[in-house]
């Protein structure tokens, strides 16, 4: 399962997460680790587009959190990749920046514990298209896929 921040303009128009430019990159990232978009579930912290694409406020995020947690309960993901700072802050309550936290396994205390890998948001990767940023995301996604491959079907047990 991948969790982003909130719908942008394209997502708002289509009613689906990650269908714009960031979504195109996310699709490529999913394929690069050997998965199909149909094999992953993609969600956002907030379900409505914040005005002017601003970052959702904590109050807005908290209002949508019950919805996101219900999505997690229904999907029962084997591993979750958090895209950027907002899901890290709002779902795990970690306010340390994504640059410091990415690549470090976390645990979501739901369904017995779900392994969580934070990484950079694809929109950030597009803005900051450097070798360092790209290889960081690649390494984080490979770690998440590695967990899936080494614990097939095991589900909710953190590393
Ligand atoms: N960015 C997000 O965080 N979510 C989307 O659905 C699209 C862009």
Description:
There is one protein chain. The protein has 159 residues and is α/β, with parallel strands linked by helices. It has one domain (2-150): Uracil-DNA glycosylase-like domain (Uracil-DNA Glycosylase, subunit E), CATH 3.40.470.10. 47% of the residues lie in helices and 12% in strands. It has 7 helices and 5 strands. The chain has a 5-stranded mixed β-sheet, sandwiched between helices. The radius of gyration is 14 Å and the shape is globular. It starts with a strand and ends in a 9-residue tail after the last helix. The relative contact order is 0.17. The chain binds uracil.
Globally, the shape reads: globular
Assigned CATH superfamily: Uracil-DNA glycosylase-like domain
Order of helices and strands: EHHEHEHHEEHH
Helix content: 40-55%
> Overall mean pLDDT score?
95
**Strand order, biggest sheet?**
2-1-3-5-4
What is the fold named in CATH at topology level? Uracil-DNA Glycosylase, subunit E
Q: Strand fraction band?
A: 5-15%
Radius of gyration: 14 Å
Count of runs of 4 or more consecutive helical residues? 7
- Kindly report how far apart the N and C termini lie: 16 Å
User: Biggest sheet, in brief?
Assistant: 5 strands, mixed
CATH class: Alpha Beta
Can you name the CATH architecture?
3-Layer(aba) Sandwich
Topology of this protein?
Layout: E1 2-4, H1 9-14, H2 21-32, E2 42-44, H3 58-75, E3 80-83, H4 85-92, H5 98-101, E4 106-108, E5 114-119, H6 122-127, H7 131-150
Bound molecules: uracil (URA).
Name the descriptors.
binds uracil
Summary of the model, kept short:
This protein has 159 residues and is of the alpha/beta class.
């Amino acid at each position: 399962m991948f969790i982003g921040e909130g719908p942008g303009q394209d997502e708002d128009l289509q009613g689906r997460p990650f269908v714009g430019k960031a979504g195109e990159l996310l699709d490529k990232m999913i394929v690069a680790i050997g998965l199909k978009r149909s094999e992953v579930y993609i969600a956002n912290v907030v379900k409505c587009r914040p005005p002017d694409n601003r970052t959702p406020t904590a109050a807005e995020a908290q209002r949508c959190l019950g919805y996101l947690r219900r999505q997690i309960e229904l999907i029962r993901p084997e591993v979750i990749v958090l895209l950027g700072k907002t899901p890290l802050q709002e779902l795990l309550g970690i306010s340390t920046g994504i640059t410091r936290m990415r690549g470090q396994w976390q645990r979501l205390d739901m369904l017995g514990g779900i392994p969580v890998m934070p990484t950079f948001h694809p929109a950030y990767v597009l803005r900051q298209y450097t070798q360092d940023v790209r290889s960081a995301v690649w390494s984080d996604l490979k770690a998440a896929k590695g967990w899936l491959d080494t614990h097939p079907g095991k589900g909710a047990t953190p590393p």
